[in-house]
Amino acid sequence: MSVDIVCVGFGPAMGGFLTTLSRQLVKEDGTPAVESPSAPGLPPQVICYERADDLGFGVSGVVTPARAIKQSFPQFDPAQVPMAAPVKHEKIAYLLDPIGASRRSTALRVADALIRAGQWALPYEHQAVNLPWTPPFLRKHDGLVLSMGQFMQWVGSQVMGSGTVQVWPSTPVASPLFENGSVVGVRLIDQGTDKQGQPADGFMPGMDIRAALTVVGDGPVGALGRQLDEHFRLPMGNHQFDWAIGMKAVVDLPPHVELAPGTVFHTFGYPEPEIFGFMYVHPGRIASLGIFVPSWFDSPVRTAYRYLQHWMLHPYLWRYLEGGTLRSWGAKSLQESGRAGEPRLAGNGYARIGEGSGSTNVLTGSGVDEAWATGTMLAEGVVELLKAGKPFTQENLEQAYVRRRRASWVEREARVAEQARDGFQRGVVTGLLGMGLTGLSGGRLNLGGDPKPPHRRVPSLESYYRGKLTPAEIQQLREDCAAKGTSLRDALMDRVGWPAVPLDGKLLISQQDALLTGGKVQAPPGYADHVTFVDPNTCAQCGVKICIDACSGQAISAGTNGVPQFDREKCVHCGACLWNCSQPHPSDPRRTNIAFLAGAGGLHSAEN
């Protein structure tokens, strides 16, 4: 099939692109404002393919300055979108360790002791200290608290209601179509296959969609974007080694809690110093809350779900959450390299927008608004080229889109933030100081670091637990868990002092229950597995297997001969396995030994 513009991924960047583009394709009288190069007399034919089974599935709760969003919708009323509210109150809190199991450096332990000793003179409450001042670069005042799923469904109805754009959910895109160094469209995923991708009953090969322009906004783990990066390579000096996994939940707050909609909490310091937390209050006594587990958290047992529950149980947060009920749950990978991870933004026949294009601001912790802005800038450039009758060559796209982006506030602020988080490569305290230095100096001063791929930074279990557990104890736990078929990560956390989570069946539930009740995870049959292990021999020799511990939905488990096995019925498509794998790709050390391909299914909730 041939169209004029084919788009991949329906997130905030594509929302900005299609919103802006659709408004400029048809005049008020219904005639084309811009004619299709391939179908004279008609507006350009635009189609967007989204992997998830419906619009808004799998994206998350967010607080955003919403500058670009408000520019697209000057009369936007938050009441039009479920769970949307203007930001009213922001607070940042440093959480102390109430149980003594956290791995804190000597500097942090001294600081914690001083805080406890002088709590009478500090804004101290419930084993936490409220920062008396929020740095300007972190403020989201006048912004919006949103459920991105609900917001994207609202945007989708606006875009498709224009009659100029088609959006097709539940349609994964397998690969780009290359021709003589150009991208000439995409190939959809094969249907009716077994888990290995071999034809089965009802087999239908993926359709080729040819287009003059392919717009790629499929996020940090999107199959198409990653294949473009492998084909064209990142610009010299750029890297994508900084990632995070966001583990989150949407909760009905208990009746006694009176937090106003638009209240925003950010936390740091617990359950481990590297882990950051958030809570955003929506209308209707609903809250989005969760943690970010970053790539610089050098732990071989990155079990985000259990850490999420320990974070919720911290006294500072539990006073608001006790008696609440889980509504939905999920996880998402975040590309935290920002401007340093920018790929090639445009080439012959294609352009990149959104998080996968390096738009996230790593200083302000803002990504949705920046992603939306990149989409609007590309749309303006595309309309300019269409009106001028110019083809979508690399040169023309560089002039119409990349040049706009380089002159924008997105680029200006990204340059300031580019090295803001490098200090975390040298420790949490150094990282926090580095962010403050960067923010307060406008990017002129930084505490540098050297971001590394996982296989160069993740320690062994024996090294990580040195001083707490002996190698013999770890080996005994490994053997006991293997014999019982139980979790080694839980056994290790139990042994070093983390208490059992007091499951209540409502908010604190097992991860398997979260998959069923809160995660709403589904995976339709007839598709190949989207997570594969590139070199099984490398997996067999791996002594860490972070892929198992870090998997958000417990979709990866121990398999035969030391090679993990994948169960897509539990996969939430967060991509944590992709960046957490501690083994390098056999032919490219910048990548890991796990391939994350196009696939269907995942979360079935528009709230989270």
From TrEMBL:
InterPro entries: 4Fe4S_Fe-S-bd, ETF-QO, ETF-QO/FixC_UQ-bd, FAD/NAD-bd_sf. Pfam families: ETFQO_UQ-bd. Keywords: Electron transport, FAD, Flavoprotein, Iron, Iron-sulfur, Metal-binding, Oxidoreductase, Transport, Ubiquinone. Its cofactor is FAD; [4Fe-4S] cluster. Transmembrane segments: none annotated. It is an enzyme of class 1 (oxidoreductase). It catalyses: a ubiquinone + reduced [electron-transfer flavoprotein] = a ubiquinol + oxidized [electron-transfer flavoprotein] + H(+). It comes from the Bacteria. Residues 530-561, 562-591 form the 4Fe-4S ferredoxin-type domain. Its EC number is 1.5.5.1. GO terms for molecular function: 4 iron, 4 sulfur cluster binding; electron-transferring-flavoprotein dehydrogenase activity; metal ion binding. Binds 1 [4Fe-4S] cluster. Accepts electrons from ETF and reduces ubiquinone. This is Electron transfer flavoprotein-ubiquinone oxidoreductase.
